[in-house]
Input
Amino acid sequence: MVEISCRAVVMDIEGTTSAARHVYDVLFPYARSHMRAWLIDHQAQPATAAAIDAVASLLGVDRVDLDAVATGLEEWIDADVKAAPLKTLQGLIWEQGYARGELTSHIFDDVPPALRTWRAAGLLLAVYSSGSVTAQRALFANADQGDLNSLIDANFDITTAGPKGEALSYEHIAELLEIPARDLLFLSDVQAELDAASEAGWQTVGILRAGESQATVSQESNVSTFGDLVIQVVC
Ligand SMILES: [Mg+2]
Output
């Protein structure tokens, strides 16, 4: 059991609210297998067109060469490259996958009751993930436990906040939330992210779930479920 006093809780998704294996075994392969068709079918749509421009520029290929763009994106997925245009496209593809009933979501069972308790106590709740805001909201909307987006006050990704391993990103989120860093709590399964938040003056609690072998939490302040975290609201 860990006790914390804060005004807002910002949480990571993969390995924290959701199983990493769901991301790697279900979400990434789905986006990879639908990427080529998505680019062809949606190349005139503004969000996809902007992503194609950005990918082509990063790869140094012609933006009309959709084959080269798609191949580059597939390679990024395989290498888990956290590039903003890739994250944008994955979010759009997943959103369609959920709408078609082809994709499942995953949120650990201890998460929804904890979010309800914290929200009822007056805490502000936010999600910060490398996955796009579109992808985050689609994942929370399609949880087995129901649509959980009503429990989330704000969403941040690498486009709106910056990379998760940099202190500047957490300073930026604190500014956007208009809450002093000391009153913010970050939850993650990755020590480098917790260290970056800590460097920005945030409080941090590591998430070390059973079976989540990718977790790198080494700090003393950690829990294995959200239910082990007792939060007092600072006014
Ligand atoms: Mg994580």
User: Anything to note?
Assistant: The longest helix spans residues 20-42. The CA atoms of residues 110 and 225 lie 6 Å apart. Strands lie at 2-6, 8-11, 124-128, 154-156, 184-188, 203-207, 222-223, 229-233. The first strand starts at residue 2 and ends at 6.
